Structure formats: C-alpha cells, structure tokens
C-alpha cells in the first residue's frame, strides 16, 4: 500500500531542524507494509499545507501529516486540512474539559485561552488522545481520501505512531490485500575491515541473496551491512533475511560483532563479565573516549574499574609507570610505550584486562615517520596480549573515534581467541 | 526570491538516512536571500522525480535537485529532468576524457563502462565541475524555468553548493531585486539555567526585538537562543541582530558562554590558557566524558595534563587519595568526597586547576536520599574552589552529558570570578 508524508514547520524548511519524525514514521510504516512514495515539507502556511496535502491525496489517497497542531497562531495544519475535507472546525466540549483538567493536574494554573483551539476538530474526525501532550492525533476519512494528523513534538509523535497509527495502518493494509506485504531489515555490524574488502568478499554471493538486498554503511565505527527485503509477507520476509544472514555472516567472519544498535563496548563488557575479568584503560590521544563509551553502558561498573587519561608524557611515567627511557628512545607513539601503558593500567587497577592507546590525532604533532593518524593500540586479557599499529584517515575527530573503536575491537578479538588483524 | 528543493533517494524516503543535505542547502540559500518554500523527497524513480521537479518549477520557476547523479541504473535524475526540459542527454567527449583521466590518476584501473553515463548531459546544460567526485553539478535554463542538479554525496554537494551554487544564486537574487533581502541568524549559547527562566526574563523584551525573533533550543548542554531576522538587506539584517543581541545578552548574564558552535570546553581552555593554568580531571559517573570533550579541541594538550577515571571506589582512594573514612561516612556521592577528588587530581597532576564529578547516572544505584540524577561537582582554580549539588532529570545519557557540561561550567564561572548558581 502506498501513501505520502507531509511534514509541517518553518524550522524544518529553513534547515535548522532535521526531519527525524519523517524518517521514523517512514521506517515504522514500512514495517507494516505501507510504503511512503513522496515526502513533502512545507512551512507554517495554510495554502502551502493545503496544496501539499491535496497533492498527496490525489496521488495515493492516504496522507500522514505531522506538525502544526500546537496552540499558537502559526499552527494552521487543522484549518488547512479541514478546508480540504469540507469539514468545519468545531469545539469539542468534552475534550476542552480534559484539557482544562490536564492544566489543573500539572499545577500550571488556568489554561491559557490560546489552548482552546486545541479542542477544535474537523467535523467527523476521529480523535486519538495524546497522553503526553495537548494536541491529539486526528484521523479523517472523506471524499479526498484519508488524512492522519500527528503532533510534531517527537516523543508525542512517537507514542501516537506506535500506539495508534501503526495498528490502524496494519488493519488497513490487511483489509486491502489478502497477503499484507512488508519491508523488513537486519543490520550486521563489522569493524576492522573496509567497505571495498567486504564488497569484494560478497561479490559472488550478492546476486544469490535476492530478494534480499545489501547496503553498505561505512562510518567511524566500521561498516554496517543492511540486509533488506520488501514485498513479502512478514514470516517469509523474516525467513529470507535469516537465510541471507546465514550466508553473509561466514564471509564477515571475525569482523562481525553484533546486530542493530549493538555497541562494541557492550560486546566487550559481556565477554569480560562472562570470563569474570575486570577492565582498566590507559588513554592518551582518545582522552577519555574509551572510558566514556564503556561507562555509557548501564551496569558497566561491575566490570570497569577505571582508567588513566595520561595526556601529558609525565603522566605516562608517573601514573602508568612507563619507563622514561622508553619514551626517550621510541617516542610516546610507539609499541614499547603502548605496551607499558597497557601493563601499567592493569597493575594500577589490579585487573586482568586492559587496553591502551597512544597516537597522533592532529591537526598538529605529525611527522614524516609518524604522520597524523598514526596510532598504537594494545590490549591484554588473562595473560595474553597484543599490540597493533594503525594509520587512520580523516581529521582529529575521525582519528579519535576510530582509535577508540579499534582499541575495543582489539580486546574483543583477543577475548574471542581470534588473532587481531594487521592491515 | 522563492525556490523549491527536491531531494532524491530511496534511502531518504525509507527513513534510513536523514536529509542533512536539504537542511544545509536551505540554510545556505537563506543566507543569500533565497527562500525554500517547499521541499519534496522522492525515491529513485523517473516519473516521481519528473512530477516533483515539474511541480516545483510550476510554483516557483527555480528548483534545486540533489541526488541520483551516480553511475548506477537507479540514478535517473538527469534523465527525468532532461525529459522535462526537452533537452536530450548527449555524451560530452571532453568530460568523458576527464573522467577517464581521473580514474587513471587515482590508480583505480580502467574506468568501468557504467561511469560513461556520467559524461552524458542534457543538451544546453552548464556543467559545473566537481573536483571531489565524478558527477558534476548541472545548471539548466529552459521553458519550464531553471533547474540546478547537485550530487547527493554530502562533501561533494557541500563544495559545489559553496563554490558554484551560492555565488550564482546570489547574482540571480541581485539581478531580480534592487535590494536583495536575506535571512540571518545568531545563536547565543547558555548553560546552568532553564528555558522557562530565560523566557520569563525576556518576556518584557521580546516584542521590542522585532523584526528579530527568538527561538529557544533546549538540550543536554543548556539552552541555545537563536535570534533570527528575515526580509532585510544584509547590512540592515546584521545591524538588527547586533541591536537585539545587545539587549538580550545582559539578561542572559553569566549563563551565556559563547556563540554558534562554540563548545564550553573551548571556552574553559581559553580561560585557562590566558591564566597560564593547567587542568586535570577526576571523573566518576561521567567515566571519561569530560576528558573526551576537552581533548576534542585541537591544541588542548597545552592546557590539559590528564585525568583519573575513578569508577570504582578503591580507585578514588588509591589514585586520588580520597580518605576511606570519608567514603564510609558520607558515601561516594557527597560533598566531602567530590572535594577530595578535586584536590587529589590537582595534586597528582601537579596543576592549578581541576574538576571532579561523582554522581548516580542510573538506571540502578539510586536511593531515597540520593535518587538517580544526584550529582556532586567540584572545581578548583588558582586557590579558589567551589562544590555544588545538582539533581539532573532524564536517563543515564542525559545525566552524564549534563554532568560533564555542569562541571565545565562550574570551572568557567569560577575562572570568570562569577559565583556558581545553586538552583
């Protein structure tokens, strides 16, 4: 089933706000077999909204509109759509009382008169209550087709999308088709390899994965692969994705570390927890990023003891017991120093596992032999250890993010008993 | 001058990719007086692109299209627009040779045949070369109006936008109007206060700022205020913004810390550098976030000595010399402990300035007296120090981000000789 999306707001149109609502609505609709074919963004202008909604209804007969349902004078979505459906706005006394009670309950004093307009609805519209805000969603059926209006505040929109819109669209899809079709996807996360290396490894396989398609999504944390399938019923779609993943995963091999939103820090924490090991970090060029990644995970305190950010060289000597002679002989960005940092962190915190990073994030500090992006990483776990040299591309932020990810990955591979890759 | 934007790509439409290109183009165009009135997003479908571009041209006569200029079979933007302008695609021999030379130069072997299509252009189109990729921008004038095609790869789009599109649109605006009007804005950043506190402080002032409008943009790092003005000539617009800022800044008072993209860590580093002080950090619940924020700034190594992430209590005792008796008597999240952490970090790193954070980020670990979000912060600089207790709202990530920002802000206020706010 096809439909269109109209998002309303001058902030969106001017480019100050990214249209995350539209992206979220499209993904949710695709999962129940409703395909967004065009998305239109207009400002807070009644004629522009009316034109956009009318065009969408002409093309597909079904439109989801978000934004412009607030109490201020520039919120004109209801008026524009009411005009199109020839359904005048009428005050809903029952809803007005609910609004007034809401204000009283939240102790915000009497309701401002401007909020009265939020109890006005196009005649015949179904009101879908919004427990998180004052603007309900509205569902209109009429001669031009079906229009659904959602508030633009993201958490209110999200709740109404999940609780009201998706179940209703699912029923609509089921009512129209004998076999409701859907778009489903799985994201396989890899790190320590490149997009082109994965693409050539998958080259012979890719055509055979049909109807599943593969998208490559490279970023600082590695390359994500999105397997996607459209136009099948839900169980068939999931089975096709399962078959495709079974064929792709062996090719990704040890580069694969998880699915969906899984953060590598989470994977490493789980590995350590299972082995009853505790972790310490020694960070130089990453300056705290690895610790921040790890402690972002709830429950990390069970595993994570702490770390030293040894940004200055004297801290490497004092706090991590790196011999000054090593720093003098090899420089701070070297294998002997990163190994000494790794050992020093484990010793200081009295733990079995540690990682260390020292490198040149730039923009200054590079030399011919050690250009910006040169990073030494080391990891130790349960008596085994490993150090690797990397040359990361990109600016300061890229080098730092890639370094943090590579340090966590080195530890992951060590813990899985898999050799670290030297590229 | 009004125009429309059409962005092409099934990834955008499905909601996997956020339309950052559209936002960037709209902001850049507004700054030279060209107003995007509608934005349409369609998939990689020739009829859908043609309909969207035709509609845009009908309404405004000028359209910027981005995406769908690559070498693969689903890149159909040129074909769709060429059809609309009745300008058949023709092979540009000269551009073809340039493409082939590019492949040879980058050592990528012979050019794949599919890339030949990238040297085909609608008859009469102006080709605006793309030094960063294979798809040039195209400028078409014809009966339906003017269409500009930009590649969708963000860094290629950005360069062509800045180097080619903006100067040309500026000339167009100047050619059409005697007094080119523009949209200009300034963002004033505050922290340590709330949106409603600022709004009531500005209540009496706001109407008097016209034609400048104020938008409140709250986030984990504080509340940004965007002052914006439209419809004036550039010098008048800048003067109006200047006058508005002069009136708003005294109200924001010490909560204001910078403009635009300025990070608070940058401000604090500048303050310390000016006072020839060096900085160390002691982090518990932030786990490295403060160090990561500081070291994200190029040149921070001049000022930042390093830090201790004392996630476990025994690290607070061993690495920061927090007396065990204080931990036992008051708990890790307490004023005596945060002060001891602050002093311990300064002592260990031998520096004049330090900050310390200890708190309960959740989801677990809260109690009746110290619920999730309870955070003690301390800062010291040049013999002065201060500790504050905060109760931050939100989940783990919110509490951690707000804590890091509040710690930096405590140090900033101390360094400016301004009292820290207790809310």
Radius of gyration of chain A: 28 Å
Largest interface (CB within 8 Å) is between: A-B, 71 and 71 residues
CATH superfamily of the largest domain in chain A: MoaB/Mog-like domain
CATH level 1 name of the largest domain in chain A: Alpha Beta
Contiguous low-pLDDT stretches of chain A (5 residues minimum) are: none
What structural class is derived from the secondary structure elements of chain A? Answer: alpha/beta
Oligomerization state: homodimer
What overall geometry of chain A do the principal axes of the alpha carbons give? elongated
How many strand elements of chain A?
A: 17
Report on the structure:
The structure is a homodimer of 423-residue chains. Chain A has a six-stranded mixed sheet with strand order 2-1-3-8-7-6, sandwiched between helices. In chain A, strands 14-13-15-16-17 form a five-stranded mixed sheet, sandwiched between helices. Chain A has three domains: 2-176, 3-Layer(aba) Sandwich (Molybdenum Cofactor Biosythetic Enzyme, Chain A), CATH 3.40.980; 182-259, Alpha-Beta Plaits (2-Layer Sandwich), CATH 3.30.70; 264-415, Maf protein. Chain A has 423 residues and is an alpha/beta fold. The mean pLDDT of chain A is 93. Chain A is elongated and about 85 Å long. Chain A is 41% helix and 25% strand. The longest helix of chain A has 23 residues, at 154-176. Chain A contains 14 helices and 17 strands. The interface between A and B is large, with 71 and 71 residues. Strand 2 of chain A pairs antiparallel with strand 2 (35-42) of chain B, so a sheet runs across the interface.
């Amino acid at each position: 089933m096809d439909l269109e999306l109209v998002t309303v707001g001058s902030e969106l149109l001017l480019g100050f706000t990214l249209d995350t609502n539209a992206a979220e609505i499209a993904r949710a609709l695709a999962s129940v077999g409703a395909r967004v074919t065009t998305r239109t963004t207009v400002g807070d202008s009644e004629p522009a909204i009316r034109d956009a909604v009318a065009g969408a209804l002409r093309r597909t007969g079904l439109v989801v509109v978000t934004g412009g349902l607030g109490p201020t004078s520039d919120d004109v979505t209801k008026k524009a759509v009411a005009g199109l459906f020839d359904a005048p706005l009428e005050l809903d006394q029952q809803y007005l009382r609910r609004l007034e009670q809401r204000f009283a309950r939240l102790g915000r004093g009497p309701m401002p008169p401007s909020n009265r307009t939020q109890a006005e609805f196009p005649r015949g519209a179904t009101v879908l209550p919004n427990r998180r805000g004052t603007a309900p969603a509205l569902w209109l059926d009429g001669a031009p087709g079906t229009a659904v209006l959602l508030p633009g505040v993201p958490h209110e929109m999200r709740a109404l999308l999940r609780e009201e819109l998706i179940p209703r669209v699912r029923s609509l899809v089921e009512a129209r088709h004998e076999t409701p079709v859907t778009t489903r996807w799985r994201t396989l996360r890899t790190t320590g390899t490149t997009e082109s290396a994965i693409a050539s490894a998958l080259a012979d396989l890719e055509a055979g994965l049909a109807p599943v398609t593969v998208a490559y999504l490279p970023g600082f944390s590695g390359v994500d692969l999105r397997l996607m399938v459209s136009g099948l019923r839900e169980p068939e779609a999931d089975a096709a994705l399962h078959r495709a993943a079974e064929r792709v995963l062996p090719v990704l091999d040890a580069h694969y570390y998880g699915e969906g939103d899984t953060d590598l820090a989470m994977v490493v924490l789980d590995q350590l927890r299972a082995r009853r090991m505790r972790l310490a970090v020694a960070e130089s060029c990453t300056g705290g990023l690895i610790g921040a990644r790890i402690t972002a995970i709830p429950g990390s305190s069970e595993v994570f003891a702490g770390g030293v950010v040894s940004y200055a060289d004297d801290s490497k000597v004092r706090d991590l017991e790196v011999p000054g002679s090593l720093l003098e002989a090899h420089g701070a960005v070297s294998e002997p120093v990163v190994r000494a940092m790794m050992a020093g962190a484990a010793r200081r915190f009295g733990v079995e596992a540690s990682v260390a990073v020292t490198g040149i994030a730039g923009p200054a500090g590079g030399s011919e032999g050690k250009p910006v992006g040169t990073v030494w990483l080391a990891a130790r776990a349960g008596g085994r250890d490993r150090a690797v040299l990397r040359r990361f591309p990109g600016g300061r932020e890229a080098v730092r993010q890639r370094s943090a990810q590579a340090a966590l990955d080195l530890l992951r591979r060590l813990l899985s008993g898999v050799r670290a890759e030297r590229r």
